[in-house]
# Entry
Amino acid sequence: MFLHTTEGETYEYYGTLKDAREQVQGILFAQIHNSIIINLEYLNTVESNSVYLKAGEKLPISKKFHASFHQQFQQFVLSR
# Structure
């Protein structure tokens, strides 16, 4: 698995996605796909089935994580 930073750096991570998700558990990070966890502070636009990062990348929101992501995003917005 790879971790990507806002500085354009990429790090190889040898743990599982479940381990990574548990380490970043909280309001700032959300899982949007089986293989994607994002930092909500770096979102530019949220659509129903995809998100756009500030870096310009478009990422899909899978059906499995659709409801939980939108709920977590709403909590994130309300906490600001």
Observations:
- The longest strand covers residues 29-33.
- The first helix runs from residue 17 to 23.
- The chain has a mean pLDDT of 89.
- The beta strands are 2-4, 10-12, 29-33, 36-39, 43-46, 50-53, 58-60.
